[in-house]
Amino acid sequence: MQVASIIPSSRALIGRVASKFDFSEPRVIVEFGPGEGCHTREIHRRMHPDSKLILFELDPELTRHLDEQFKDDPRVTVLNADCQRLPEELAALGHTSCDYVVSGIPFSVLEVGKKRTLLQKIHDSLSADPAAAFIIYQVTNELRGHAKVFPRAQSEYCLQNIPPMFITVFRKALAQVNGHATRAADPALQPR
Ligand SMILES: C[S@@+](CC[C@H](N)C(=O)[O-])C[C@H]1O[C@@H](n2cnc3c(N)ncnc32)[C@H](O)[C@@H]1O
Which of 1, 5, 14, 36 best tests ligand 1's pocket when mutated (most atoms within 8 Å of CB)? Predict the structure, then answer.
């Protein structure tokens, strides 16, 4: 129930998820459930050199494996912690917010109350930067129905993974047109 997968994400899924980030600027990036680190390595490879990467992994053995992989990079923080601790851990690391949360945890098995609490924490922790986003890859797209706190969401389906996955990008910022916030301004993101 905690890992909910027998094999890591495919190269295709990893590439599609990484393409949702704007890596052109320094970012505070949070990953939930990195597992053995397949998405982490790609994000780490692509991220701006002044970025920070914070990993929440529940499994102690996988946490040790991640620690070993990133021990030489002070920009990476590996936490053996429940991702529900996002606000507390960001504050402890001296961050008031983060720019991205990417999640590989089996969100769909979370009890509804926990799911909504976590969604609210993610929303409240994201910065006001227009690029800031919560990115999730999942077998089902049921989370869209719960994530009403985010005004914008866009989903796509990645068939090149076992099993195929929905990738959904949630944003809290409304797009800007001539300095005015609008939901319809960004054609790449459908208004909800
Ligand atoms: C399906 S695996 C994903 C692994 C990897 N991201 C991938 O794409 O192959 C889910 C991971 O989430 C971790 N996990 C589950 N619930 C978690 C939680 N509440 N907080 C942090 N990690 C969690 C599990 O231990 C597991 O490593």
Answer: 5
